[in-house]
Design goal:
elongated
Length: 132
């Protein structure tokens, strides 16, 4: 039973990533002006990263106690570490660069966060479809 809950938590994180990346973010930037969209995203995405980090950590804990820890959980560990990196290091840097109008570093760090997000989607997608 813990195995199933663990897998469902991975699927919840994956679904949340798809929803935020392909629904919330695009609709926000097509509905709101750039300033308000930026304010909204700045408030929303820390919750996004924290929710997914907590969800994946719970999945790992359950898999560990269930004894079903397998190769796929190494992928989940990597994704959780990337969520922690983005939440605690990269997002504050992105916000600082934006606040200080350092557009070059803002664009670089923002692109890095987007690349990390898509890598996580691909990796969790592999786990979600049962490839690993």
């Amino acid at each position: 039973m813990l195995f199933q809950i663990s897998n469902n938590l991975i699927l919840i994180a994956f679904g949340t990533m798809i929803f935020f990346s392909f629904i919330i973010a695009p609709v926000t930037f097509t509905t709101l002006d750039e300033q308000n969209a930026g304010k909204f995203i700045r408030r929303l995405f820390p919750f996004y990263y924290a929710f997914n980090l907590i969800t994946l950590l719970l999945s790992l804990i359950l898999a560990f106690f269930d004894g079903s820890f397998a190769v796929r959980y190494h992928i989940v560990i990597l994704c959780a570490l990337l969520f922690a990196f983005t939440l605690f290091y990269l997002m504050p840097k992105i916000n600082t660069y934006r606040d200080n109008k350092n557009n070059k570093m803002f664009k670089i760090s923002h692109r890095l966060s987007v690349v990390i997000n898509f890598i996580q989607i691909a990796l969790l997608g592999l786990v979600a479809i049962g490839y690993y």
